[in-house]
């Protein structure tokens, strides 16, 4: 046996490890195509000298736990002082993965087996089992360990020092998932040679969705890997010329599938998902958006939104992305303080909070709706619409303080022809006050009764109430039904996929999801009537007419005079 087989994880796994198939047979472990893809992603981080940090969103039964356990076994059975922990969502799964590791050990050739100490717990301890201290000191063994446990136990992993962590089916862990992980991660140093893998199918909008979103947005070092069901080559059923539905044809074309894959999908929905298409999409997603499907009754047509979302992901509508820079000066006057933002400039950044889909056009009216942080959300949003059509032309989304948010709103409004700005005032009136200090010329006004006289007064900002919120939702329903092609932001569409009616019939974001962009869009739609809806015509340039032109004009009838003005331009007098 050459040394290289010990240092090459894939060669070691496929040369020595055995697995139990669904049919109950013990066979050599050969990586399938999906496992190969994961293995390459892991080795890319290893070869780059980075700690391996990966989060996997997957369809069911694709073999990622098997590969991860194989890699863990290789590390601990061939290295000194490597400690690994495997944590699952329930005791049955813990037993299954422990038995998998035991089978790896039992299937090794005798000469390859490291010394192992007996244990009553679900763990493999690779050290000299002797009770003689002198013999143990002279020949201690690897002193490496694989421990399998179930999430939910008090202090799981907190007292260990780990080289490798496999968090299996994280979305289904009991208790506070994020708190459990936070405790365990303290045991894994952020050093090359360590590995942390989260893998799970989705389970609605719980903490695993947050972990996935944070990885996708680059907020963490975890590399997000999504594996759709059709990457599993065994997911096939014979095709005998059956007629495909319109939906099946569309899916077949979109994802370049063959008939046998479509037949497996049809069979799986009927036999293992109780003909529940939502259940199939959650268990066997084609896209991450399908995986994190809303569990309640959707307010919008999720199929239509998914198609629009997929199109935008393939055909990015973003013209540019960034934020505004400016020089800020605060001054006092008799009328009170005011702020000047000079030298405003849009600076492009890859992670900028503003996305521009269409540049402003001269004379075109625009409206901006804003939803501020509050009521459990820490995000500020702005939606910019072409007020002639309602088409989305830009949006802002990020975590801010109120002053920075309002200053970006001011710049965005000035950029779009002094757009009408309507920012919600439910949780704070400060942004609208800042717009006043900035002397922004076009702020949304609402009527409120004076507490003393009862007379109606105008005040700045949009307020969401029991009266206005149903109007916002109704406006959004119409907009998503009739003008879905006007939405260019993928994040707005993702929010729409998880906007549901709860058990009381109230429209709201699924628990754990956001609706900040939707509310900003709804406010913009409700505010449109306070601004003109037609573009201003540019004034015609005055032209100096010659004496002959004047003579022809004076001798013409009324209809011809109008024609000559249109042809020659207005005369300069």
* Strand adjacency order, main sheet: 5-6-4-7-8-3-9
Can you tell me the residue ranges where pLDDT is under 50 for at least 5 consecutive residues?
none
Q: Architecture of the largest domain, according to CATH?
A: 3-Layer(aba) Sandwich
Counted by DSSP, the helix tally is 20
Strand content: 15-25%
Summarize model confidence as the mean pLDDT: 90
Tell me how many strands there are.
Answer: 21
Describe it.
- By secondary structure, this protein is an alpha/beta fold.
- It has 4 domains: 4-227, Rossmann fold (3-Layer(aba) Sandwich); 232-293, no CATH class; 320-530, 2-Layer Sandwich (Nucleotidyltransferase, domain 5); 539-573, no CATH class.
- The longest helix has 17 residues, at 91-107.
- A 7-stranded mixed sheet has the order 5-6-4-7-8-3-9, sandwiched between helices. It has a 7-stranded mixed sheet with strand order 12-11-13-16-15-14-17. A 3-stranded antiparallel sheet has the order 10-20-21.
- 36% of the residues lie in helices and 20% in strands.
- The chain is elongated.
């Amino acid at each position: 046996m050459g040394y290289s087989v010990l240092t090459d994880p894939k060669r070691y796994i496929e040369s020595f490890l055995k697995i139990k198939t669904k049919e109950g047979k013990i066979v050599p472990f050969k990586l399938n195509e999906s496992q190969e893809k994961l293995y390459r992603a892991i080795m890319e981080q290893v070869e780059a000298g980075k700690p391996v940090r990966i989060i996997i969103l997957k369809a069911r039964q694709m073999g990622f736990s098997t590969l991860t356990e194989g890699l863990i076994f290789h590390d601990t059975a061939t290295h000194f002082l490597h400690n690994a922990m495997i944590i699952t969502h329930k005791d049955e799964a813990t037993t299954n993965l422990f038995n998998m590791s035991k089978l790896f050990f039992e299937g090794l050739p005798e000469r390859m087996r490291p010394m192992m100490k007996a244990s009553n717990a679900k763990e493999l301890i690779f050290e000299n089992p002797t009770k003689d201290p002198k013999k143990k000191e002279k020949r201690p063994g690897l002193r490496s360990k694989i421990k399998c446990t179930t999430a939910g136990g008090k202090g799981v992993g907190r007292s260990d020092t780990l080289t490798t962590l496999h968090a299996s089916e994280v979305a289904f862990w009991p208790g506070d998932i994020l708190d459990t992980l936070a405790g365990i991660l303290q045991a894994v140093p952020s050093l090359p040679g360590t590995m942390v893998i989260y893998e799970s199918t989705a389970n609605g909008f719980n903490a695993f969705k947050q972990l996935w979103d944070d990885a996708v947005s680059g907020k963490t070092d975890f590399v997000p890997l999504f594996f759709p069901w059709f990457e599993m080559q065994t997911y096939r059923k014979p095709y005998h010329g059956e007629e495909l539905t319109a939906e099946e044809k569309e899916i077949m074309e979109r994802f370049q599938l063959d008939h046998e894959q479509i037949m497996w999908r049809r069979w799986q929905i009927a036999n293992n998902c109780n003909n529940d298409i939502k259940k199939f999409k959650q268990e066997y997603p084609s896209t991450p958006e399908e995986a994190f499907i809303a569990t309640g009754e959707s307010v919008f047509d999720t199929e239509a939104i998914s198609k629009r979302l997929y199109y935008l992901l393939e055909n990015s509508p973003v013209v540019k992305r960034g934020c505004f820079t400016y020089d800020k000066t605060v001054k006092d006057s008799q009328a009170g303080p005011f702020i000047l933002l000079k030298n405003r400039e849009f600076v492009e950044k890859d992670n900028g909070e503003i996305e521009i889909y269409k540049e402003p056009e001269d004379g075109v009216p625009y409206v901006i709706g804003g939803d501020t942080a509050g009521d459990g959300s820490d995000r500020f949003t702005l939606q910019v619409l072409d007020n002639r059509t309602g088409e989305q032309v830009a949006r802002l989304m990020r975590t801010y303080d109120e002053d920075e948010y309002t200053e970006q709103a001011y710049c965005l409004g000035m950029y779009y022809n002094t757009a009408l700005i309507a920012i919600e005032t439910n949780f704070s009136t400060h942004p609208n006050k800042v717009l006043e200090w900035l002397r922004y010329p076009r702020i949304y006004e609402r009527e409120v009764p004076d507490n003393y006289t009862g007379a109606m007064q105008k005040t700045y900002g949009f307020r969401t109430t029991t009266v206005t919120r149903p109007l916002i939702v109704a406006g959004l329903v119409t907009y998503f039904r009739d003008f879905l092609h006007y939405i260019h932001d993928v994040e707005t569409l993702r929010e729409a996929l998880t906007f549901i009616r709860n058990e009381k019939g109230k429209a709201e974001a699924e628990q754990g999801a956001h609706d900040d962009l939707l509310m900003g869009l709804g406010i913009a739609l409700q505010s449109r009537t306070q601004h003109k809806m037609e573009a201003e015509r540019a004034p015609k340039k005055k032209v100096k007419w010659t004496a002959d032109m004047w003579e022809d004009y004076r001798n013409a009838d009324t209809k011809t005079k109008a024609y000559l003005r249109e042809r020659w331009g207005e005369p300069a007098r």
